[in-house]
Design brief:
There is one protein chain. With 431 residues, the protein is mainly α. Among the domains are: 46 residues, no CATH class; 172 residues, Citrate Synthase, domain 1 (Orthogonal Bundle). The protein is built from 19 helices and five strands. The strands form two sheets. The chain has a three-stranded antiparallel β-sheet with strand order 3-4-5. Helix 6 packs antiparallel against helix 11 and helix 8 packs across helix 9. The chain is globular, with a radius of gyration of 24 Å. The termini are far apart. The structure holds coenzyme A (COA). The site of coenzyme A has 15 residues, from loops. Coenzyme A binds next to loops.
Amino acid sequence: MTENQTLTVRDNRTGEEYEIPILDGTIRAGDVGQIGRTDDEPGLAVYDPGFTNTASTRSAVTYIDGDRGILEYRGYPIEQLAEKSTYLEVAYLLIHGELPTKEQHDQWVHEITFHTFVHENLKSQLQGFRYDAHPMGMLLSSVGALSTFYPEARNIKDPDIRHEQIVRLIAKMPTLGAWSFRHAQGKPYVYPDNDLTYTENFLSMLFKMSEQKYDPDPRLAKALEVLFILHADHEQNCSTNAVRSVGSSQVDPYSAVSAGIAALYGPLHGGANEAVLKMLKRIGTVEKVPDFIEGVKNGDEKLMGFGHRVYKNYDPRATIIKKAVDDVFEVTGVNPLLKIAVELEKIALEDEYFVSRKLYPNVDFYSGLIYEALQFPPEMFTVLFAIPRTSGWLAQWLELVDDKEQKIARPKQIYTGGRQLDFVAASERWA
Ligand SMILES: CC(C)(COP(=O)(O)OP(=O)(O)OC[C@H]1O[C@@H](n2cnc3c(N)ncnc32)[C@H](O)[C@@H]1OP(=O)(O)O)[C@@H](O)C(=O)NCCC(=O)NCCS
């Protein structure tokens, strides 16, 4: 510790002073707990609902600088990965911490490709869902169910066993996601095609009908690849925190990842792109954009897909998605809502209201347009997020399992209820 890397705190209740070390720009909650501690009283605690200013872990997976609009996986800028890499290579990078050699890459792709099939009993489980079941509900329960097919997965201290579950999870997510999609349409589930790449195979399982072999459009497969790379990790967000929190009980990774899927299911996390689409449809025409913007400035509306808790600059993923939009529309034809989106962005980026509040487009502003162009119903949007995020969740889970500083997650509370009440039996209360 260099000199002055401490915080001097004076407890005005007692006049006592404490010197608390500052490490990595943080103070230890345990050190705060020494303040005011006596034999009878607990020390000071920190109240931080939603962990807005609490670091829960050290992590070397993803770096974000929200003010500068920087996102890096394992130190590599997202822009370079989206342009030059594939999703599976990025997944390898996230999980292993380094880019693969040719042999490592080929082995990794081979392993993932040959674990894409799921047990037939799991297929029966999916088929048992109601015809209109939400695909996220199907996905989270089937991923949880995987733990029953691989009971050895609970040996989380064994690196070989861990590796096998990681491969299985990354491999099977597109299969389960695609089958959840087909289920709602009453179409037969399509088995994986191991001749295809990860995203091509996903497209095949989604859209193949009676043809012998599905021939995915390479531009769509590439756009999906980019979207998957952009969604692979985003450090300690709600679903990653869920995976880590549940994983801290040392449960198997299937159960931990299904907790992540459950967190992603919530509208505050995975649902914003659907809200963007609804907003664009409601606006209806480019001419109505100025009125809508006025409504936002008056506080009557929210410009969905703008603003971010972390990014106070252009979300770097939004810039990349915008390029992918053009590629997809080249295949599918232009979605008329795009014009409205472009006009909204143009006005908002020049308007004092948005500029002064540092409100820029986020990843969801354009992704919904792409998903709709690919004919996904809005319920599938979050599934399309969960599939690539699996590699990030697992990279974070691996870090957790090996982190000697981690303990079972167990936050404190400020108790606000009654105390020492006298229980009166029901027979007397209701008499
Ligand atoms: C993402 C989001 C929840 C971040 O919220 P936050 O960091 O807590 O920011 P705040 O809610 O404190 O917003 C700061 C100011 O900007 C305004 N603001 C934030 N997002 C806005 C939006 N999308 N449209 C209009 N005004 C917005 C707030 O009203 C507030 O204004 P005020 O200072 O006059 O009260 C928020 O920007 C939002 O709801 N965006 C739309 C939903 C969305 O796209 N979510 C996806 C995120 S990936």
